[in-house]
Amino acid sequence: MEYRPQEIEEKWRSYWKENKTYQTPTTSDKPKYYVLDMFPYPSGAGLHVGHPLGYIASDIFARYKRLSGFNVLHPMGYDAFGLPAEQYAIQTGVHPAVSTAENVGRYRQQLDKLGFSYDWDRSVNTSSPEYYKWTQQIFIWLFEHYYDTTADKALPITELIRQFEQAGSEAVAAAHSHEEHFSAADWQGFSAQEKEEVLMNYRLAYRKVGYVNWCEELGTVLANDEIKDGRSERGGFPVVQKPMMQWALRITAYAQRLLDGLDTVDFSEALKTQQRNWIGRSEGAELFFLTENEEDKIEVFTTRPDTLFGVSFMVLAPEHELVQKLTTAEQKEEIDAYLHYVEGRSERDRMMDVKTISGAFTGSYAIHPFTGKKVPIWISEYVLAGYGTGAIMAVPSDDERDQRFAQHFGLDILPVVDQSDYPNAEMGQKIGKLINSDFLNGLEVKAAIPKAIEKLEALNIGQRKVNFRLHDANFSRQRYWGEPFPISYDAEGLTQVETALPVELPELDNFQPTADGHSPLARVESWVNTPEGRKRETDTMPGFAGSSWYFLRYMDPKNENAPFSEEAVNYWQDVDLYLGGAEHAVGHLMYSRFWHKFLYDLGKVPTQEPYKKLVNQGMIQGIIEQIYMLKEKNEAGQTVFVSADRIAEYGGEEAFALLPVHIDFVSNYGQEDSHLTAEGVAKFLEWRPSYANAEFIYNEAGQLMTDSEIGKMSKRYYNVVNPDDMVALYGSDCFRLYEMFLGPLEDSKPWNTSGISGVAKFLRRLWLLFYSPEGEWLVQKETPTAKERKALHHCIKQVQHGLESFSLNTCVSDFMKLSNELRDLNCHKAEILEGFVLLLAPFAPHLAEELWQALGHQESVFKTGAFPSFNPAYLVEDSIVYPVCVNGKKRAAIELANGLAQEAIKEQALALEDIQKWIEGKTIRKVIVVPKRMVNIVV
Fold first, then answer.
1. Do 213 and 227 meet the contact criterion of CB atoms below 8 Å apart?
2. Which helix (H) or strand (E) holds 910?
3. Neighbours of 372 (CB within 10 A)
4. Which of 246, 283, 381, 758 could be cross-linked to 476 through a Cys-Cys bond (beta carbons 3.0 to 4.6 Å apart)?
């Protein structure tokens, strides 16, 4: 009977589906284990061979835990809202729901072929109203809560209102963005509109003016990655920053808890560092500079209050609320011109561009809090409104960017930190002695910082403060394909919560944003205007909304009365193992941890953190093949392509551009001798007819040698390998094993199709332990020998270690070694082979099922709950071969029973004929026995 993987795999995929083998009960007497993949966005391109890497690893671990007696939750779904589907709709007119459904279908087909043990009955789709109904509900809960800093948790907004009614704002300790104080009487006298504005400054979901990337020519708001150098990627039109009322989430209220929670989870240190840096906790001082007119004050936060005497100017973000007020008539034209320039710069451009030095003087001055001197107030793009207070006190002697700004505009630079005692110190480092700093002179920096804060507090112009780099999350998108907000506004503009959920997206055929930058939903008057006379919010939620809690919905996906039941969440608790890409380290992970902590505050979930352990899989890279194209055309006006080994004859690398070509055209792609033959060039020209008249300069062998490099697997590099093709050729078990065999899970590694044939040979050899080449069943019921048991249990030990440490590549190597050992031992014993099948089952589930059935078992191997356990007794040797040395040189060897007494070992070693000739006539000084290692006779 020949090993036919495609037939076997189709058979068992059908069996699993019909018998619901992987259906998971919501609760069980078994211990639970929750294995989760970061669910995919279903793009039109489908999966390439790099995408399933993490899915295969998680599936192996889920099957391992299932075989080990756990009730395993291993679900899969789709993160289906997002910009790509909407852009496709704008370009083609195909409704996002239609294209998304098609893409989901394609993903499902591809995932099914790889034999994953997903419980598809628990699948979720974030664009389904049945799902986003609960995303809307969680948003409402966020809207109806504020963060009490005394209780250190979210509390209902009704509690905040009660405090305002009793004692005004002074008694409230809460995370907020409201600076004005008021009494209880003031609160009672506020209008409904004024009360709403105050409460918005405390709610965890709130509205504020934010800036969007607006492209007038395209009539749309653009995402950051749709902009390059201040222009739209599509069309190259100018993009400006446009203020717009938008929703935001007060994630900053949870900053310290998000930081502290990292100490309780099993994430890589690299990922924890990324999150800590993103949260950016810093200790320092909050202080105020009065303006020259004494009407306004500018708030700044600094981690270096010791350098206050070095402040020679201040810088405000161009968007700062005081800019217009502080701009003098003489400076208005310059300030207006500068503001127009900044409009075309995205926040990302401003953060990343450290070389550009730009700014404008407002004409106004602030008063230095210690010296009373006038300090000029400037604006510059390097200060961002959304970070800190949107204003800085500039100390050009101790900050590199401030120094470049001061040098560029001819501003004073006042040295205040003497680092001469520290020759290796860098600018801004917190070491040195204070100079030119009045009462701080002579103090080391670390002593001067608290001294400066004491002075600020004594003068009542500042205070000690902990600050965070993390800023509140923008939660609005001016798009159609996203979750509608469950919010409407009455005739007075007051915010109302929609109680009839879900608020569903209406049908639409024009997906372009409106001329004034609002969502396409704003055109649908029948949807915008509710029967109650209110107007619905037309922004939609961002892509991370649905993904911030999807892991909880998997616990109870059919629940129509709540996002999940108390029974389900108390059983499953949290995710035991989460696998996904490192690119989500500070986006999805941060927001989902925030939502989970909020739900914990509400008593909805029993754990503070959603994920116990997180593993980031590496990237499977592709080979990028490129051909050398001369930048200048030849005299005949032709494009010229030159073989890589001849480019020196034509001016060297600088004279050429590299053009990526499809790897299917390249012979020996990825190798040192990769090249295009004449046939390959013909395929290239058929693919790129625009080069039909090009000149090709080959080498002596008639080849066009290519440039090969390892890089991203992507459609733009024409190096995508479809997993469907690999499965069709080798079977999914082979594909699964090969992806693991490529190298450590967390490392990036190049895909090389030629290597998969070695894994295919291993599987065929394994099959021959059970069946002869003629199809005869070889398995026997005989008792295994000690060597056979030792081989199996050594493999069990190694594989268990590999699984628990996620060294899955070493597990595949161990399988190959065991197969070879059993073949050398001519072992066809049922006991040994059953153990091997169970061991292999998580990695090659279809083959394992087939062989398990052939071994006489009626039920699926994954229903056994019997992963092999390692027995150390089987690794104990019956005998040991001792090298016998004379004066340290090996002269003989002897096999002796394990456990033999040392005296007996000495006697038998000395009696060896090969040893006698070396000790005859000599005095034996001593005989050293190193147990289980060697014997050394000293003469």
1. yes
2. helix 902-910
3. 7
4. 246
Residue, of 84 and 439, whose pLDDT is higher: 439
> For residue 350, what are the β-bridge partners?
none
Q: What is the pLDDT of residues 705-722, one digit of tens each?
A: 999 999 888 888 888 888
- Give the separation between CA 732 and CA 845, rounded to whole angstroms: 9
Instruction: Using a cut of 0.85, tell me whether the model's pTM lies above it.
Output: yes
* Residue 220: pLDDT over 70: no
Amino acid at 640: V
* Cα–Cα distance, 268 to 671 (Å, whole number): 34
Q: Over the stretch 775-802, which tens digit does the pLDDT of each residue have?
A: 999 999 999 999 999 999 999 999 999 9
Stated as kind and residue range, the H or E segment containing 658 is strand 656-661
Q: How far apart are CA 642 and CA 575, in angstroms?
A: 55
Q: Tell me, what DSSP letter sits at residue 39?
A: P
* CA dist., res. 704 & res. 646, Å (int): 9
In whole angstroms, what is the distance from residue 841 CA to residue 63 CA? 8
**Is the confidence at residue 932, as pLDDT, over 90?**
no
Cα–Cα distance for residue pair 543/124, rounded to 1 Å: 15
**Torsion of the alpha carbons at 724, 730, 735 and 741, rounded to the nearest 10:** -150
| H or E segment and range at residue 883 | strand 879-886
The model's pLDDT over 642-658, given as tens digits with 9 standing for 90+, comes to 999 999 999 999 999 99
Q: Which amino acid is at 695?
A: E
Q: How far apart are the C-alpha atoms of 45 and 319, rounded to whole Å? A: 40
CA 17, 19, 21, 26 dihedral sign is positive
Are residues 403 and 413 in contact, defined by beta-carbon separation less than 8 angstroms? yes
Residue 336 in 3-state DSSP? helix
H-assigned helices in 721-877: 723-730, 732-741, 756-767, 786-804, 808-824, 830-840, 845-854
Three-class SS state of 499? coil
CA distance 627 to 443: 64
CB atoms within 10 A of CB 525: 8
What's the rounded Cα separation, in Å, for the pair 751 and 671? Answer: 12
Phi/psi region, residue 898 (left: phi>0; alpha: psi -120 to 50; beta: rest), is beta
Confidence of residue 345 (pLDDT cuts 50, 70, 90): confident
**Cα separation, 459 vs 323, whole angstroms:** 27
Q: State the chain's maximal CA–CA distance in angstroms.
A: 117
Number of helices (H), then strands (E), belonging to the chain: the values are 30, 36
CB 452 within 8 A of CB 308: yes
Residues whose CB falls within 8 Å of the CB of residue 822, separated by 6 or more in sequence, listed in order: 769, 788, 791, 832, 833, 836
Query: Does position 46 have pLDDT exceeding 80, yes or no?
Result: yes
Q: What whole-number distance in Å separates Cα of residue 546 and Cα of residue 80?
A: 9
Please count the other Cβ atoms lying within 10 Å of the Cβ belonging to residue 241.
21
> Which H helix or E strand runs over 879?
strand 879-886
pLDDT digits (tens, 9 = 90+) for 675-684: 999 999 999 9
Residues whose CB is less than 8 angstroms from the CB of residue 421 and which lie 6 or more positions away in sequence, other chains included: 432, 433
Class of residue 856 by CB neighbours under 10 A (exposed 0-12, middle 13-18, buried 19+) = exposed
Kindly give the pairing relationship between strand 695-697 and strand 640-642.
parallel
Neighbouring C-alpha atoms within 13 Å toward the C-beta of 819? 20
- Pairing label, strands 313-316, 231-232: unpaired
Distance CA 870, CA 799 (A): 10
Q: Distance between CA atoms of 392 and 406, rounded to whole angstroms?
A: 14
Angle between helices 96-113 and 83-92 (to 10 degrees): 120
171 pLDDT higher than 90: no
Q: What is the helix (H) or strand (E) element at residue 9, kind and residue range?
A: helix 5-19
Q: What is the dihedral angle through the alpha carbons of 214, 217, 220, 221, rounded to the nearest 10 degrees? A: -20
Preceding peptide of 502 cis, ω within 30°: yes
Residue 368: pLDDT above 90?
Answer: yes
Structure tokens at 826: 């001519």
